[in-house]
């Protein structure tokens, strides 16, 4: 499917509120910015940390300590939450840094990363079999985003603030002024979109590597965990769009700075819920 993404953004009201290049809500020193020379990965969550300068902006020479501090400050992850991921990267010797304890984000985009850190059936990337599995792919993402209801015209993404929310990052109570659900991605919706993408990729890619169902579940659990709004018990659509489409922390839409502390257990709970729903479809 060929999609005019710019038109889509305008139609859904997303661009209007982004007009101009001023983003006053970005915390000082953590303004969103990236250049084409920066080292970036297939993982939006990591790229975002570099785009905002929580990780080195060039995306290079990252170690466990640096990533842990960045994710805690920006997202509110518990300290050392991603240590296992870094261990996996380093043990697989994906790094091209010449050291045993650092990696460049771009190392996760190398062919060697396929089926180690980068998997088939991504929500926003194509499969390695078709070429580029590293960069945001509008066609792939549009199908995911549509399934998540991100382009529904009947919701106002600013409603997140209008229905009892506050400007300090508490995104508010989706059940008050508005019939909130359409402003949020629920675990169930996320799971169904993930499962549909997985089936679609499996059918299209004769080299599709099966057996990473939990890997794809992890992807959905991870973005929901990162963009979760406790008050709504779901992820605001505006936050999810910012995360994938701009690789940007949605400060503009109320994401708190520093990140509100998250429970590590919540990631496990989300994974379990997604797993259970997936096995039921
Ligand atoms: C990561 O790098 C920082 C800064 O160079 C250093 O202080 C820290 O000890 C390093 N951590 C690890 C696990 O190598
Ligand atoms: C990395 O680890 C390997 C094996 O453990 C070792 O042989 C090598 O010298 C280490 N490289 C550096 C730069 O420390
Ligand atoms: C944000 O505002 C809400 C409602 O006014 C309040 O309950 C909450 O404690 C505030 N959170 C922070 C992090 O200041
Ligand atoms: C959220 O909305 C419901 C339904 O209107 C209300 O009962 C509840 O008190 C609200 N919660 C908050 C935190 O405002
Ligand atoms: C996949 O995840 C579920 C839920 O966390 C778990 O019960 C199951 O054992 C996992 N399967 C594999 C192969 O890791």
From TrEMBL:
Gene3D superfamilies: Chloroperoxidase-like
Keywords assigned by UniProt, alphabetized: Heme, Iron, Metal-binding, Oxidoreductase, Peroxidase, Signal
Signal peptide as annotated in the record: 1-19
SUPFAM superfamilies: Cloroperoxidase
InterPro entries: Chloroperoxidase (IPR000028), Chloroperoxidase-like_sf (IPR036851)
Heme haloperoxidase family profile domain residues: 28-272
Pfam families: Peroxidase_2
Alphabetized GO MF terms: metal ion binding; peroxidase activity
Cofactor or coenzyme needed: heme b
Transmembrane segments annotated in the record for this chain: none
Top-rank lineage group of the source organism: Eukaryota
Family stated for the protein in its record: Belongs to the chloroperoxidase family.
Protein name per its UniProtKB record: Chloroperoxidase
Organism: Apiospora kogelbergensis
């Amino acid at each position: 499917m060929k999609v005019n993404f710019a038109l889509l953004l305008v139609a859904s009201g997303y661009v209007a509120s982004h007009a101009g290049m001023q983003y006053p809500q970005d915390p000082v020193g953590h303004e969103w910015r990236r250049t084409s020379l920066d080292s970036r990965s297939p993982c939006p969550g990591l790229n975002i940390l570099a785009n905002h300068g929580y990780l080195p902006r060039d995306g290079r020479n990252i170690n466990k300590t640096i990533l842990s501090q960045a994710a805690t400050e920006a997202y509110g992850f518990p300290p050392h939450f991603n240590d296992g991921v870094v261990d996996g990267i380093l043990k697989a010797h994906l790094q091209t840094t010449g050291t045993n304890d650092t990696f460049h984000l771009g190392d996760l985009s190398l062919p060697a990363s396929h089926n180690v850190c980068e998997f088939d059936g991504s929500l926003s990337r194509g499969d390695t079999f078709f070429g580029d599995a590293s960069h945001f792919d509008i066609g792939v993402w549009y199908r995911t985003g549509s399934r998540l209801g991100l382009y529904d015209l009947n919701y106002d993404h600013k409603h997140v603030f209008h229905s009892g929310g506050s400007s300090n990052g508490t995104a508010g109570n989706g059940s008050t002024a508005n019939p909130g659900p359409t402003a949020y991605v629920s675990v169930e919706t996320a799971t169904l979109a993930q499962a549909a993408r997985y089936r679609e990729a499996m059918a299209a890619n004769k080299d599709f590597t099966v057996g990473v169902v939990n890997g794809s579940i992890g992807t959905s659990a991870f973005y929901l965990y990162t963009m979760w709004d406790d008050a709504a018990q779901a992820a605001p659509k505006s936050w999810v769009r910012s995360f994938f489409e701009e690789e940007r922390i949605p400060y503009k839409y109320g994401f708190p700075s520093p990140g509100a502390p998250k429970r590590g257990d919540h990631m496990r709970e989300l994974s379990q819920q997604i797993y259970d729903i997936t096995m039921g479809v």
